[in-house]
């Protein structure tokens, strides 16, 4: 069944990512990496916007930001337009870490789909993107790209 296979691939992907981070002596999850990457491209966004950019639950994104803040990788500040909202940005340490590990994360991507040729990987990714986009509105944490 597709759901089972998708769950298995997620388990495999997470395991490969965590093994690589452990080899680098880092305590970083795939979601934390996604958050750091989104913040690099969108500095100073609020937590709700960040959640939408990485298709993560708005309620639990605060915990992700808390852990990244404790690690010194992100900083929060009060939004001048809405004092209830918090803006999030990478710290210099977060930026340096992201520059260091992004090539590592890129290099492990093919191993997530071991057993497939390069052409099959490209096809798989295209089909997975198509399926995810078609059902995005059915997700409890839909992807919400930032409007230009």
From TrEMBL:
Protein name, per record: MarR family transcriptional regulator
SUPFAM superfamilies recorded: Winged helix' DNA-binding domain
Origin: domain of life: Bacteria
Pfam family, one: MarR_2
Example GO BP: response to stress
InterPro entries attached to this UniProt entry: HTH_MarR-typ, MarR/SlyA-like, WH-like_DNA-bd_sf, WH_DNA-bd_sf
A single MF term (Gene Ontology): DNA-binding transcription factor activity
Residues of the HTH marR-type domain: 2-133
